[in-house]
């Protein structure tokens, strides 16, 4: 593995999940691997889980870890090739990334979409430029279109909670939110589930269809009740419209996940990547109840991040 930006960078998904399960059993067994290696984690947006779990993951492998809030603590970055930099940007990404590539052996970067221009966001310009200029392995900590470390932890969580040999029904359901949210988590989840041994159903109100690049293997319906029938896992997530790009089309009344809605599921486990808007996306009763997996999902972020860092250090991904 030279980089980890999507499930497409993984050659052997089943092996990868097994490796994460092993690391979870014994997180310190590769303490020597990262000795004298530096991990740089760069954030252009807020983060709790990704920041903390990836730091622990690096430390478990013996790495030196540096975290930088690039949006607040770095110089304003220019990304346009050939720009005459007489405006507000101070440093070109070519120069900044090249320098950080000298300081770090692996770099993680988080950069959300702006949700203004679909082509611009979906081109993943910043991530691709960063990869080409820093010349060291890059891990996406959530980019404009995907959140692969989250999806890997989600897959580990589903695997742990599925009896051997069973192919679970997994439902990704849109939920209301108060602001426009990226499609990344939903895109990525659908893309990973498409490669896993699960049946995926996606349900959302009209106008919230995701880019079909990510959803090809899924069944898609606007009927939430029908979708939830016999579900083993219900993954709750808001996203803004892809077709009417970045817009919030409805207040989503009736789409919040409640215990009442879980009645016809197979006693489904409920998942969310967090942070969650309680009693908007998901009810308190679910989040505080026995079917919620959200904290274990967040816990699994450490071991999945560690698996990716281990493979990048070993150059085996
Ligand atoms: C972000 C998103 O959905 O992409 C980050 C989630 C990990 N969520 C919010 O901005 C609330
Ligand atoms: N789920 C997740 O990525 O959380 P943070 O945004 O807090 O890192």
UniProtKB/TrEMBL annotation:
Keywords: Amino-acid biosynthesis, Arginine biosynthesis, Transferase
Keyword Coiled coil among UniProt keywords: no
Domain Aspartate/ornithine carbamoyltransferase carbamoyl-P binding positions: 4-160
Sequence intervals crossing the membrane: none
Amino acids binding N(2)-succinyl-L-ornithine: 142, 177, 237, 277
Stretches assigned to the Aspartate/ornithine carbamoyltransferase Asp/Orn-binding domain: 185-310
Listed pathway(s): Amino-acid biosynthesis; L-arginine biosynthesis
Alphabetical list of Pfam families matching this protein: OTCace, OTCace_N
Catalysed conversion reaction: N(2)-succinyl-L-ornithine + carbamoyl phosphate = N(2)-succinyl-L-citrulline + phosphate + H(+)
Residues reported to bind carbamoyl phosphate: 47-50, 75, 110, 147-150, 273-274, 301
Coiled coil: none
Sequence similarity: Belongs to the aspartate/ornithine carbamoyltransferase superfamily. SOTCase family.
Entry function: Catalyzes the transfer of the carbamoyl group from carbamoyl phosphate to the delta-amino group of N(2)-succinyl-L-ornithine to produce N(2)-succinyl-L-citrulline. Is essential for arginine biosynthesis.
Protein name per its UniProtKB record: N-succinylornithine carbamoyltransferase
Encoding gene (name): argF'
């Amino acid at each position: 593995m030279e980089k980890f930006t999507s499930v497409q960078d993984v050659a052997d998904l089943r092996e990868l999940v097994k490796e994460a399960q092993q690391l979870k059993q014994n997180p310190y067994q590769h303490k020597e691997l990262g000795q004298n290696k530096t991990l740089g984690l760069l954030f252009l947006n807020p983060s709790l889980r990704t920041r903390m779990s990836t730091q622990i993951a690096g430390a478990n492998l013996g790495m030196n870890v540096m975290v930088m809030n690039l949006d607040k603590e770095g110089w304003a970055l220019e990304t346009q090739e050939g720009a005459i930099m007489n405006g507000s940007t101070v440093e070109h990404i070519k120069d900044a990334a090249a320098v950080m590539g000298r300081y770090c052996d692996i770099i993680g970067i988080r950069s959300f979409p702006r949700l203004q221009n679909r082509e611009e966001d979906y081109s993943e310009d910043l991530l691709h430029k960063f990869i080409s200029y820093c010349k060291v392995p890059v891990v996406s900590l959530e980019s404009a279109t995907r959140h692969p470390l989250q999806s890997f932890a989600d897959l580990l969580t589903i695997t742990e909670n599925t009896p051997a040999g069973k192919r679970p029904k997994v439902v990704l359901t849109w939920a209301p939110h108060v602001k426009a949210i990226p499609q990344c988590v939903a895109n990525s989840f659908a893309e990973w589930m498409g490669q896993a041994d699960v049946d995926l159903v996606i349900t959302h109100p009209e106008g919230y269809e995701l880019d079909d690049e990510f959803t090809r293997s899924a069944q898609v319906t606007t009927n939430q009740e029908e979708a939830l029938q016999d579900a083993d896992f219900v993954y709750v997530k808001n996203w803004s419209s892809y077709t009417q790009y970045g817009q919030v089309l409805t207040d989503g009344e009736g789409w919040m996940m409640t215990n009442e809605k879980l009645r016809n599921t197979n006693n489904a486990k409920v998942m969310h990547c967090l942070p969650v808007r309680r009693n908007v996306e998901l009810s308190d009763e679910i989040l505080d109840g026995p079917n919620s997996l959200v904290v274990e999902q967040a816990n699994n972020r450490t071991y999945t991040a560690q698996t990716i860092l281990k493979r990048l250090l070993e150059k085996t991904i």
